[in-house]
């Protein structure tokens, strides 16, 4: 089908049932968005292979389940926007680098074109995210959706003798959604970026629940915001609701700089009280 569409630039696949393996090969495709969906009876897309797509700039997986394996992203030398990756993907090949459930097994390929990455991470798993930063040294924007019901020890020190290029020179925007400030794993994860992202311009943190301003002040103290590596960075925290990226629209508009740059859903309790969302920022 794709070989018969020599001018195709954008492709969207929704609720892909009954297909076990999908191989993409196109000389013109720039954007691929897919939502495999879920069913207890039918098959959902199990394996995706990007065989040869030299113009592909964005690969958007918007469902939290389905597509258990992205076996290969090859020949995509212009890929700049990738998401949503998660532990549900049992195996991911980026060139010769291999990730199994987001854990790096081999880090032999660096993709210098990647600038926007969206992840859905249990814990959240800081080691897994840092390995992606190493794989994408020119990453500018990072989105992480927390699955916080499982706790992972995120205490990690940054070794200046083993610098991460994206943290030193590139990463300007970090967005954390469903942040649980009651758990040390979430606090340590956010604090790592506050203290080590040296060119950070903006960090937005959204909670899955309602909180008052005095609670935010305590959180900023725990995150050591006053000691942030980039003193120019604006750190913002707001109460809200559980958020995901499945409602992204307009992905066919290739002029959109960042399809994950969406406004917060907002806090239902604040809306009930006729108030704006509780926001705290420095």
TrEMBL record:
<dbReference type="Pfam" id="PF24758">
    <property type="entry name" value="LRR_At5g56370"/>
</dbReference>
<feature type="domain" description="F-box/LRR-repeat protein 15/At3g58940/PEG3-like LRR">
    <location>
        <begin position="1"/>
        <end position="144"/>
    </location>
</feature>
<dbReference type="Pfam" id="PF08387">
    <property type="entry name" value="FBD"/>
</dbReference>
<dbReference type="InterPro" id="IPR055302">
    <property type="entry name" value="F-box_dom-containing"/>
</dbReference>
<dbReference type="InterPro" id="IPR006566">
    <property type="entry name" value="FBD"/>
</dbReference>
<protein>
    <recommendedName>
        <fullName>FBD domain-containing protein</fullName>
    </recommendedName>
</protein>
<feature type="domain" description="FBD">
    <location>
        <begin position="160"/>
        <end position="205"/>
    </location>
</feature>
<dbReference type="InterPro" id="IPR055411">
    <property type="entry name" value="LRR_FXL15/At3g58940/PEG3-like"/>
</dbReference>
